[in-house]
Design a protein that fits this description.
Helix content is about 35%, strand content about 20%. The chain has one domain. It has about 80 residues and is α+β, with helices and mostly antiparallel strands. Bound molecules: zinc ion (ZN).
Amino acid sequence: MTIIVSNTTNANIKVSVNCIYCKEQYIFEVNLDKFRAYQYGALKAQDAFDNLTREQRELFISGTCPNCWNEIFKNDDDENDN
Ligand SMILES: [Zn+2]
């Protein structure tokens, strides 16, 4: 995980995360204080990154991007979304 310290708005930072499977790079803007709290274990991912989707948070938790997550965990009996 790479932290891009770019002084964007307020106390937000940009964090670059590469998927451990497809190596795709994703960049998220997160709150610096919450991000630190997450690193120290004071906040869970869903609280620290409440501005991200569940799939995006998974990149922080397991290093798996949404595409790969779907590939790995797709069910045989999934619904007819496509
Ligand atoms: Zn991936």
